[in-house]
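Deliverable D4.2, example record:
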Amino acid sequence: MSTPTTTPAAAVNPRLVIITGLSGAGRRTAAHAMEDLGWYVVDNLPPSLLPNLVDLARGKGIGKLGVVLDVRSRTLFEQLGSVFAELTEQGLDIEVLYLEADDAAIVKRQESTRRPLPLQGDGRLMDGIEKERAMLSTLRASADLVVDTTNINVHQLAARVAHAYGGDEGNRIRVAVMSFGFKNGLPLDADLVLDVRFLPNPHWIPELRPQTGLSEAVSSYVLAQPGAEDFLTRLEGLFETMAPGYIREGKRQVTVAIGCTGGKHRSTAMSEEFGRRLRAKDVPVTVMHRDLGKE
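Output generated by the structure prediction step:
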Protein backbone atom coordinates (compact mmCIF):
# COMPACT_ATOMS: atom_id res chain seq x y z
CA MET A 1 0.00 0.00 0.00
CA SER A 2 1.44 3.41 -0.96
CA THR A 3 1.32 6.63 1.03
CA PRO A 4 -1.53 8.78 -0.27
CA THR A 5 -1.21 12.38 -1.33
CA THR A 6 -4.14 14.10 0.37
CA THR A 7 -5.79 17.39 -0.38
CA PRO A 8 -7.91 19.42 2.05
CA ALA A 9 -11.18 19.34 0.15
CA ALA A 10 -14.80 18.44 0.61
CA ALA A 11 -15.76 14.81 0.21
CA VAL A 12 -15.72 14.14 -3.52
CA ASN A 13 -15.54 10.97 -5.53
CA PRO A 14 -11.99 9.83 -6.29
CA ARG A 15 -10.91 8.70 -9.72
CA LEU A 16 -11.06 4.92 -9.30
CA VAL A 17 -9.08 2.50 -11.45
CA ILE A 18 -9.45 -1.25 -10.97
CA ILE A 19 -6.22 -3.07 -11.86
CA THR A 20 -7.01 -6.64 -12.80
CA GLY A 21 -6.17 -9.43 -15.24
CA LEU A 22 -4.36 -12.72 -15.40
CA SER A 23 -1.82 -13.88 -12.86
CA GLY A 24 1.63 -13.32 -14.35
CA ALA A 25 0.45 -10.63 -16.76
CA GLY A 26 1.97 -7.71 -14.85
CA ARG A 27 -0.54 -6.50 -12.26
CA ARG A 28 2.18 -5.80 -9.71
CA THR A 29 4.26 -3.83 -12.20
CA ALA A 30 1.22 -1.77 -13.15
CA ALA A 31 0.36 -1.13 -9.50
CA HIS A 32 3.91 0.01 -8.71
CA ALA A 33 3.89 2.28 -11.75
CA MET A 34 0.67 3.92 -10.55
CA GLU A 35 2.14 4.39 -7.07
CA ASP A 36 5.08 6.16 -8.66
CA LEU A 37 2.59 8.48 -10.37
CA GLY A 38 1.08 9.48 -7.02
CA TRP A 39 -1.90 7.13 -6.92
CA TYR A 40 -3.04 5.56 -3.66
CA VAL A 41 -2.91 1.84 -4.50
CA VAL A 42 -4.34 -1.09 -2.52
CA ASP A 43 -3.50 -4.65 -3.52
CA ASN A 44 -5.73 -7.76 -3.25
CA LEU A 45 -8.70 -6.05 -1.65
CA PRO A 46 -11.80 -8.24 -1.13
CA PRO A 47 -14.43 -6.77 -3.47
CA SER A 48 -16.96 -6.34 -0.65
CA LEU A 49 -14.62 -3.83 1.05
CA LEU A 50 -14.34 -1.60 -2.01
CA PRO A 51 -17.22 0.74 -0.97
CA ASN A 52 -15.57 1.19 2.45
CA LEU A 53 -12.27 2.07 0.78
CA VAL A 54 -14.00 4.58 -1.49
CA ASP A 55 -15.66 6.18 1.55
CA LEU A 56 -12.26 6.42 3.21
CA ALA A 57 -10.79 8.03 0.10
CA ARG A 58 -13.61 10.57 0.00
CA GLY A 59 -13.08 11.48 3.65
CA LYS A 60 -9.31 11.80 3.30
CA GLY A 61 -9.46 13.79 0.06
CA ILE A 62 -7.65 11.08 -1.92
CA GLY A 63 -8.22 12.01 -5.53
CA LYS A 64 -6.66 9.03 -7.32
CA LEU A 65 -7.36 5.51 -6.11
CA GLY A 66 -6.05 2.31 -7.68
CA VAL A 67 -7.25 -1.09 -6.48
CA VAL A 68 -5.86 -4.47 -7.52
CA LEU A 69 -8.74 -6.97 -7.72
CA ASP A 70 -8.22 -10.47 -9.05
CA VAL A 71 -9.08 -14.12 -8.58
CA ARG A 72 -6.96 -14.47 -5.45
CA SER A 73 -10.15 -13.55 -3.57
CA ARG A 74 -11.71 -16.76 -4.98
CA THR A 75 -15.49 -16.83 -4.52
CA LEU A 76 -15.49 -13.28 -3.12
CA PHE A 77 -14.66 -12.15 -6.65
CA GLU A 78 -18.21 -13.07 -7.66
CA GLN A 79 -19.46 -10.11 -5.57
CA LEU A 80 -17.79 -7.64 -7.92
CA GLY A 81 -20.83 -7.05 -10.14
CA SER A 82 -23.08 -5.97 -7.27
CA VAL A 83 -20.29 -3.86 -5.75
CA PHE A 84 -19.75 -2.04 -9.06
CA ALA A 85 -23.49 -1.41 -9.34
CA GLU A 86 -23.58 0.06 -5.83
CA LEU A 87 -20.68 2.42 -6.54
CA THR A 88 -22.12 3.45 -9.90
CA GLU A 89 -25.38 4.40 -8.18
CA GLN A 90 -23.31 6.67 -5.95
CA GLY A 91 -22.08 8.52 -9.03
CA LEU A 92 -18.65 6.91 -9.16
CA ASP A 93 -17.12 6.36 -12.60
CA ILE A 94 -15.15 3.10 -12.43
CA GLU A 95 -12.27 2.52 -14.87
CA VAL A 96 -10.83 -0.94 -15.49
CA LEU A 97 -7.24 -1.68 -16.51
CA TYR A 98 -6.99 -5.30 -17.66
CA LEU A 99 -3.64 -7.03 -18.14
CA GLU A 100 -3.25 -10.22 -20.11
CA ALA A 101 -0.68 -12.32 -21.96
CA ASP A 102 -0.80 -15.46 -24.08
CA ASP A 103 -0.66 -18.91 -22.50
CA ALA A 104 2.99 -19.53 -23.38
CA ALA A 105 4.10 -16.27 -21.72
CA ILE A 106 2.08 -16.96 -18.56
CA VAL A 107 3.46 -20.50 -18.30
CA LYS A 108 7.03 -19.29 -18.72
CA ARG A 109 6.63 -16.59 -16.09
CA GLN A 110 4.91 -18.85 -13.57
CA GLU A 111 7.49 -21.59 -14.01
CA SER A 112 10.25 -19.08 -13.31
CA THR A 113 8.58 -18.09 -10.01
CA ARG A 114 7.88 -21.75 -9.09
CA ARG A 115 4.48 -20.74 -7.70
CA PRO A 116 1.11 -22.26 -8.65
CA LEU A 117 -1.72 -20.13 -10.00
CA PRO A 118 -4.49 -19.21 -7.53
CA LEU A 119 -7.09 -21.42 -9.28
CA GLN A 120 -4.74 -24.24 -10.27
CA GLY A 121 -5.43 -26.47 -7.29
CA ASP A 122 -4.11 -29.98 -7.92
CA GLY A 123 -4.44 -29.59 -11.69
CA ARG A 124 -2.07 -28.48 -14.42
CA LEU A 125 -0.85 -24.92 -14.85
CA MET A 126 -2.97 -24.66 -18.00
CA ASP A 127 -6.05 -25.62 -15.99
CA GLY A 128 -5.44 -22.62 -13.73
CA ILE A 129 -4.98 -20.29 -16.71
CA GLU A 130 -8.21 -21.46 -18.35
CA LYS A 131 -10.18 -21.02 -15.12
CA GLU A 132 -8.81 -17.49 -14.68
CA ARG A 133 -9.67 -16.50 -18.24
CA ALA A 134 -13.23 -17.78 -17.76
CA MET A 135 -13.74 -16.02 -14.43
CA LEU A 136 -12.34 -12.74 -15.75
CA SER A 137 -14.01 -12.79 -19.19
CA THR A 138 -16.84 -10.40 -18.30
CA LEU A 139 -14.45 -7.94 -16.66
CA ARG A 140 -12.15 -8.04 -19.66
CA ALA A 141 -15.04 -7.33 -22.02
CA SER A 142 -15.92 -4.17 -20.09
CA ALA A 143 -12.34 -2.95 -19.58
CA ASP A 144 -11.44 0.63 -20.47
CA LEU A 145 -7.87 -0.35 -21.28
CA VAL A 146 -6.54 -3.82 -22.14
CA VAL A 147 -2.77 -4.26 -22.25
CA ASP A 148 -1.28 -7.43 -23.71
CA THR A 149 2.12 -7.88 -22.03
CA THR A 150 3.17 -10.94 -24.04
CA ASN A 151 5.76 -9.09 -26.09
CA ILE A 152 6.61 -6.10 -23.89
CA ASN A 153 8.97 -5.74 -20.94
CA VAL A 154 8.29 -4.21 -17.51
CA HIS A 155 9.64 -0.81 -18.59
CA GLN A 156 7.31 -0.70 -21.60
CA LEU A 157 4.37 -1.69 -19.41
CA ALA A 158 5.22 1.07 -16.92
CA ALA A 159 5.33 3.53 -19.83
CA ARG A 160 1.86 2.40 -20.97
CA VAL A 161 0.53 2.93 -17.44
CA ALA A 162 2.21 6.33 -17.16
CA HIS A 163 0.66 7.45 -20.43
CA ALA A 164 -2.81 6.31 -19.42
CA TYR A 165 -2.84 7.45 -15.80
CA GLY A 166 -0.08 10.01 -15.40
CA GLY A 167 -2.10 13.10 -16.34
CA ASP A 168 -5.24 14.89 -15.27
CA GLU A 169 -6.97 15.36 -18.61
CA GLY A 170 -10.37 14.28 -17.26
CA ASN A 171 -12.54 13.08 -20.11
CA ARG A 172 -10.00 13.79 -22.84
CA ILE A 173 -9.15 10.76 -24.88
CA ARG A 174 -5.56 9.49 -24.71
CA VAL A 175 -4.02 7.59 -27.60
CA ALA A 176 -1.27 4.99 -27.73
CA VAL A 177 0.11 4.46 -31.24
CA MET A 178 1.94 1.16 -31.59
CA SER A 179 4.01 -0.09 -34.51
CA PHE A 180 4.30 -3.85 -34.91
CA GLY A 181 5.31 -6.60 -37.32
CA PHE A 182 2.68 -8.99 -38.63
CA LYS A 183 5.24 -11.80 -38.57
CA ASN A 184 5.29 -11.50 -34.77
CA GLY A 185 1.52 -11.66 -34.42
CA LEU A 186 -1.30 -9.17 -34.06
CA PRO A 187 -1.38 -6.97 -30.93
CA LEU A 188 -4.38 -8.31 -29.05
CA ASP A 189 -4.84 -5.12 -27.03
CA ALA A 190 -5.30 -2.83 -30.03
CA ASP A 191 -8.61 -1.06 -30.60
CA LEU A 192 -7.77 -0.29 -34.23
CA VAL A 193 -5.32 -2.25 -36.43
CA LEU A 194 -3.99 -0.78 -39.69
CA ASP A 195 -1.82 -2.42 -42.35
CA VAL A 196 0.82 -0.38 -44.21
CA ARG A 197 2.30 -3.28 -46.17
CA PHE A 198 0.86 -1.62 -49.29
CA LEU A 199 3.84 0.76 -49.19
CA PRO A 200 7.19 -0.22 -50.78
CA ASN A 201 9.48 -1.94 -48.28
CA PRO A 202 12.77 -0.11 -47.50
CA HIS A 203 14.21 -3.52 -46.62
CA TRP A 204 14.97 -4.01 -50.33
CA ILE A 205 17.05 -0.84 -50.54
CA PRO A 206 20.59 -1.74 -49.37
CA GLU A 207 21.40 1.63 -47.78
CA LEU A 208 18.07 1.73 -45.89
CA ARG A 209 17.92 -1.92 -44.80
CA PRO A 210 20.05 -1.55 -41.63
CA GLN A 211 18.23 1.62 -40.55
CA THR A 212 14.79 1.88 -38.92
CA GLY A 213 11.74 4.05 -39.40
CA LEU A 214 13.13 6.32 -36.68
CA SER A 215 15.87 7.51 -39.03
CA GLU A 216 15.32 10.53 -41.25
CA ALA A 217 16.31 8.63 -44.38
CA VAL A 218 13.79 5.80 -43.92
CA SER A 219 11.04 8.12 -42.68
CA SER A 220 11.43 10.45 -45.68
CA TYR A 221 11.40 7.50 -48.06
CA VAL A 222 8.26 5.93 -46.55
CA LEU A 223 6.30 9.18 -46.26
CA ALA A 224 7.11 10.12 -49.85
CA GLN A 225 5.59 6.94 -51.29
CA PRO A 226 2.28 7.11 -53.21
CA GLY A 227 -0.58 6.50 -50.78
CA ALA A 228 1.29 7.36 -47.58
CA GLU A 229 -0.06 10.90 -47.25
CA ASP A 230 -3.58 9.83 -48.23
CA PHE A 231 -3.48 7.01 -45.66
CA LEU A 232 -2.45 9.37 -42.85
CA THR A 233 -5.01 12.00 -43.79
CA ARG A 234 -7.82 9.44 -43.88
CA LEU A 235 -6.64 7.94 -40.58
CA GLU A 236 -6.77 11.40 -38.99
CA GLY A 237 -10.33 11.80 -40.26
CA LEU A 238 -11.30 8.36 -38.98
CA PHE A 239 -9.93 9.18 -35.54
CA GLU A 240 -11.78 12.50 -35.45
CA THR A 241 -14.99 10.62 -36.23
CA MET A 242 -14.46 7.91 -33.62
CA ALA A 243 -13.03 9.96 -30.73
CA PRO A 244 -16.26 11.74 -29.69
CA GLY A 245 -18.08 8.41 -29.67
CA TYR A 246 -15.41 6.81 -27.51
CA ILE A 247 -15.71 9.67 -25.03
CA ARG A 248 -19.52 9.42 -24.94
CA GLU A 249 -19.15 5.71 -24.17
CA GLY A 250 -16.69 6.47 -21.35
CA LYS A 251 -13.64 5.06 -23.13
CA ARG A 252 -10.63 7.24 -22.38
CA GLN A 253 -7.79 5.06 -23.69
CA VAL A 254 -7.43 4.05 -27.34
CA THR A 255 -4.64 1.96 -28.86
CA VAL A 256 -4.01 2.34 -32.60
CA ALA A 257 -1.70 -0.35 -34.03
CA ILE A 258 0.04 0.15 -37.36
CA GLY A 259 1.74 -2.91 -38.82
CA CYS A 260 4.14 -3.88 -41.57
CA THR A 261 6.02 -7.13 -42.16
CA GLY A 262 8.64 -6.92 -39.43
CA GLY A 263 7.83 -3.72 -37.54
CA LYS A 264 11.14 -2.07 -38.43
CA HIS A 265 10.65 0.39 -41.30
CA ARG A 266 7.19 1.28 -42.62
CA SER A 267 5.05 0.83 -39.52
CA THR A 268 7.61 2.62 -37.36
CA ALA A 269 7.82 5.64 -39.67
CA MET A 270 4.05 5.86 -40.14
CA SER A 271 3.37 5.50 -36.40
CA GLU A 272 5.79 8.30 -35.59
CA GLU A 273 4.18 10.57 -38.16
CA PHE A 274 0.64 9.79 -37.02
CA GLY A 275 1.68 10.50 -33.43
CA ARG A 276 3.19 13.82 -34.51
CA ARG A 277 -0.07 14.81 -36.22
CA LEU A 278 -2.14 13.95 -33.15
CA ARG A 279 0.17 16.00 -30.91
CA ALA A 280 -0.25 18.94 -33.27
CA LYS A 281 -3.97 18.73 -32.48
CA ASP A 282 -3.25 18.67 -28.74
CA VAL A 283 -4.21 15.01 -28.34
CA PRO A 284 -2.30 13.27 -25.50
CA VAL A 285 -0.39 10.56 -27.34
CA THR A 286 2.49 8.18 -26.87
CA VAL A 287 4.21 6.20 -29.61
CA MET A 288 5.76 2.82 -28.95
CA HIS A 289 7.42 0.25 -31.20
CA ARG A 290 6.61 -3.28 -30.06
CA ASP A 291 8.89 -5.23 -32.38
CA LEU A 292 11.74 -2.82 -33.05
CA GLY A 293 14.99 -4.69 -32.47
CA LYS A 294 13.43 -8.14 -32.89
CA GLU A 295 14.25 -8.48 -36.57
